Amino acid sequence: MEVRLQTPLTEDKILNLKAGDSVLLSGVIYSARDAAHKRLIDLLVEGKELPLDIKDETIYYVGPSPAKPGKVIGSAGPTTSYRMDAYAPTLMDLGLRGMIGKGARNGEVIDAIKRNKAIYFGAIGGAAALIGKSIIKSEIIAYEDLGAEAIRRMEVKDMPLVVIIDSKGNNLYEIGQKQYLDSINKE
């Protein structure tokens, strides 16, 4: 099933999404990778405010390449998500609703997704130029010194995603593997 979604991602918008659903996401999302995530958590430990209100927001694990002349952003392919696993549960507990990346997540992240009714989307690795075209506006809002890993506020239009882990904890990677194994065991 293909679903069009508009950010911010409130609970009611994602509750009926299922692992495996195709999504075209539009609206504002934020970029952040592991260095930025560490800084966010360090701020929380110090009792300081985050540089963005993450309630119902979506973070894309991306370090885009520089924009070519006349373009908003360069290639913008997903980063491997497990690098953010140490930080994601804390951010979800503070209201982060969506995450976009590639690859599996650990048990703590999946528990936090279920606990907070959040969602994990997969972006297709190797499709960085295509994904970059769905980003129609981009500005650095924090940690400019991190270069490609700075936190950006990005506006996207019809960003192609797949629900990997839905708000109930159903995991496309596990479902797909089971379906495949069941199919070959029937032969």
From TrEMBL:
The keyword Lyase is annotated on this UniProt entry: yes
Annotated TM spans: none
EC code: 4.2.1.2
UniProt GO MF annotations: fumarate hydratase activity
Broad enzyme group: lyase
Pfam families given in the database record: Fumerase_C (PF05683)
Domain Fe-S hydro-lyase tartrate dehydratase beta-type catalytic residues, every copy: 2-174
Keyword list, A-Z: Lyase
Family that this chain belongs to: Belongs to the class-I fumarase family.
Protein name: Fumarate hydratase beta subunit FumB
Organism of this sequence: Clostridium saccharoperbutylacetonicum N1-4(HMT)
